[in-house]
């Protein structure tokens, strides 16, 4: 039995390493293209910060896994540090999903009332507020040092869990509302990046929620149950953070065509963003005709023909009157 458990633990450990390395590469490509090759619209700012949070989580995960493989034991700061990056990503995903939902439900109000730098401010607040919320709880519950303050741990932990579960509900509910609204209530074609919102919400529900439950139940689980559940939750969390670049690729690709990654990524964002210097400018969401992109410019010859049209009509009317 111990041999089977040891084999299972080794398989999960190396799968986590493999998924983490692939996710690091994917998020690094997203960071590179969004940071240097694509002009960022409001939604692209969220995607950039989400990729940074996922890259940080996977990097910390691989670093602590290397320490564990070298020393044979888990570092005491392992869970607290990695969960900081995970919680930042959860804050960003909730804000991204909520803003996409509001932009589709109330387009006129969204375009008229939204401040220009909302995305940057929200991302900055996520990076500023998420780490203290996690680290205060970790310190009170004995994850950063040996001593544990029971009453403070219960208070901080309850507040932290309530906030994180609320963010997870916002992210998933926004994707669900977009799905129902697009299928039943709206006749407009959906931009491509709504597929990224739906995919991210589903990925959070399937792969991110176990890691969040592990944080929720850690003070109450016996050590043998925690040692069984935590490696699987960590593997699923790595899948959650590694899968988002694949979602962007699947949403932005066109079947049967081989295109540069930056073109696929730009199309998946669906904002009409433009590539940087030396790149190609693309409309990101559809061919002409959808309401969020302007129509193509009318040629001068067409304008001349249209201006001469009323005169031609009046001349024909005069001829008919003469008859």
Describe this structure in words.
GO terms for molecular function: G protein-coupled receptor activity. Keywords: Cell membrane, G-protein coupled receptor, Membrane, Receptor, Transducer, Transmembrane, Transmembrane helix. The chain crosses the membrane at residues 12-31, 43-64, 76-98, 119-138, 158-181, 193-213, 225-251. Belongs to the G-protein coupled receptor 1 family. Mas subfamily. It comes from Bos mutus. The structure is a single chain. It contains 10 helices and no strands. The longest helix has 36 residues, at 150-185. It is 76% helix and 0% strand. Helix 1 packs antiparallel against helix 2, helix 5 (118-140) packs antiparallel against helix 6 (150-185) and helix 6 (150-185) runs antiparallel to helix 7 (193-217). The chain has one domain: Rhodopsin 7-helix transmembrane proteins (Rhopdopsin 7-helix transmembrane proteins), CATH 1.20.1070. The radius of gyration is 25 Å and the shape is globular. The chain has 323 residues and is mainly α. Mean pLDDT is 78; it is low at 272-296 and 298-323.
